[in-house]
Amino acid sequence: MTSRALLPDLPDKNLVGIARLAASGEHLRDGHNVEYLTLPARSVLNRCTAKYMPFTWTINLYRGCEFACKYCYARFTHEFMELRDGLDFERKIYVKQQTAWLLRRDLKRVKPGEAIAIGTATDPYQPAERKFEVTRGILEELGQHAALSIGMVTKSQLVTRDIDLLQRISEHNDLTINITVTTMDPDLARILEPRAPRPDLRMAAVTRLVQAGIHAGVICAPVLPGITDTTRNLDTLVRTAARAQAQFIYTNPLFLKPCSEKIFLPFLQEHFPHLVNEYRKRFKESGYVSAAYRRRLGELMQKLCHKHGMPDREARRAQRARNAGRVEYRAEQMALF
Description:
By secondary structure, the chain is of the alpha/beta class. The protein is 41% helix and 15% strand. The protein has helices at 17-23, 88-91, 99-106, 128-132, 134-142, 163-172, 186-192, 199-211, 231-243, 258-271, 276-282, 291-308, 313-334; strands at residues 27-30, 35-39, 46-47, 57-59, 62-63, 92-96, 115-118, 149-154, 174-180, 216-223, 249-253.
């Protein structure tokens, strides 16, 4: 009889759905305290049910993110796999399998005018992408389609590796690349986003993308009260984005989910202890900042954008509408061939 000890570990029979799939993932390799595992995927395109979001579909090719941002709101997604330790999100990275052909199938569900967002929960260009190239495979598939509205969010200059594919996609689709930069202070960025690329490298990526003819700009998100929301920090960010030729910049305040608090509040206690009580009060009733805070932040950013010659949000929206019209026209032309 075969000894039970010689058999491979089997998933707990009580696990269901994605938790069971994750438990049966094949171990790929270790990084620095990071495990990479396979994750069978049933679909790549997921419908966004939040009505206030500017997109209908999301694509997240990895589960977990090695960048280890202290404020990350997506840590809760590991709980679906029965991984309750908040640090598992940055230490157990699941690589989705067979993504390109799944996307080819799933794109049939996308209706005209429905936007697709890539990287809403995990970064598509985190370190795992250098080896596994799942994001590149998705872009190769998207390059064969037309009339899609696609947005991508990343903190990594690795996005410039795929400029050839992004240019191909842009020819027949409405494509926007959003590079996230929370601060230009490298020391602050290092403790906020321990394993993400330096801010200056991200800004350099914006320049390369824009010069390659790709619509690209900067997201300052999240804006952290008392930490990154100072006029000095935001002024430096907007000025640098303008010099980097960013075609837009906008902000989004911190969204502090309960699962994020488990990591973020101890981080505050270590680096900004004087802010702990303020954060507890500010987010006691909700994970969102107040409407008044959003309004003040918006007014400040509008002034800074005007100061440094960055287009405001209304100008950006008008440009996006013009882009959408061009994409629709190109799709009609493609149909003639």
